[in-house]
Amino acid sequence: MNRCIGLMSGTSLDGIDGALVNVQADGNKVQFIHGITRPFSDSLREQLAALAHREMVNKEALARMDVLMGHLLADVVKALLTETGMKAKDILLIGSHGQTIGHYPDKKAQFKHSTASTLQIGDGDVIAARTGIPVVSDFRRRDMAAGGVGAPLIPLLDSLLFSERKHSICCLNIGGIANITVLPAGESEPIAFDTGPGNCLSDLAIARLIGKGQHFDTNGENAFRGRVHDEILDRAMDDRYFDQLPPKATGREYFDEKFLDFLLELGRDVPFEDMLATISCLTPKSIAAALRRFVPADDFPTELIVSGGGVRNRFFMEKLKDYLPELEVNSSEKYGIDPDFKEAMGFALMGYRTMKALPSSIPAVTGATSQQILGKISLT
Question: What is the pTM of this model?
Answer without folding.
Answer: 0.95
